[in-house]
UniProtKB/TrEMBL annotation:
Taxonomic superkingdom: Archaea
Keyword Cell membrane: yes
Transmembrane segments: 12-35, 47-66, 109-129, 149-166
Statement: the UniProt record of this protein carries the keyword Translocase: no
Protein's organism: Candidatus Methanoperedens nitratireducens
InterPro entries in the record: Cyt_b561_bac/Ni-Hgenase (IPR011577), Di-haem_cyt_TM (IPR016174), FDH_cytochrome_b556_subunit (IPR051817)
One Gene Ontology term of the molecular function aspect: electron transfer activity
Coiled coil: none
Protein name (record): Putative Formate dehydrogenase gamma subunit
Length: 199
């Protein structure tokens, strides 16, 4: 049997943001490797800049106009309990881990780090974009910050994809919206009980 895990709103939020994020990384790498000028090829730069707008605005729009379930998911992802810390302790001890809600501690850390990276990339990107408004030293500092945060983003994305491929049922959930009930009961027992009423 299959259990609904992510509705259409959550899946659109995830995949639209993922596609734009990868596009920004690809164009950003192109700019970084282009020797034409400090800011790279003008066309690629323009594409990169304008892609940053839906990267920032689209998640906000989906959060506001999307389903209440998506908003509940996001609230859970940014909330922490002692059980989430215990999840990491058990993981470090090489013991079997099970989340006490819909998301485990690792997923919550991934989400929060991604939010911080988005904020940092957006701010440093804005400073570089509007460099005439700021001092040369501040712009150069934000160039460095933007590149450094982009590298961290690539590492985070690589880890995210690796875990998603390893946990194929989790990947199925974010693509098609449902997961296997037995898998849910094993990895997310509290959420499974909440959704099914089965203890």
């Amino acid at each position: 049997m299959r259990l609904p895990r992510f509705d259409a709103s959550a899946r659109v939020l995830h995949w639209s943001h993922a596609v734009i994020f990868i596009w920004l990384l690809a164009t950003g790498i192109q700019l970084f490797l282009t020797p034409k000028s400090l800011l790279g090829d003008p066309l690629i730069r323009r594409i990169h800049l304008y892609a940053s707008l839906p990267f920032i605005l689209l998640p906000v729009m989906i959060y506001i106009a999307g389903s209440s379930l998506t908003r509940i998911d996001i609230k859970e992802l940014i909330s922490w309990t002692g059980d989430d810390l215990n999840w990491f302790v058990e993981l470090l001890k090489n013991r079997k881990t099970a989340a006490t809600g819909k998301f485990n501690g690792g997923q919550k850390v991934n989400f929060i780090v991604m939010l911080l990276l988005i904020a940092g990339l957006s701010f440093s990107g804005f400073v570089v974009w509007m460099k005439s408004l700021f001092s040369v030293n501040f712009v150069e500092l934000n160039f460095l910050a933007h590149d450094s945060l982009a590298i961290l983003s690539i590492l985070l994305l690589a880890g995210h994809i690796t875990f998603a491929l390893y946990n194929s049922e989790s990947l199925h959930g974010i693509i098609f919206g449902t997961v296997d009930e037995k898998w849910a009961e094993e990895h997310y027992p509290a959420w499974f009980e909440q959704e099914t009423g089965i203890k």
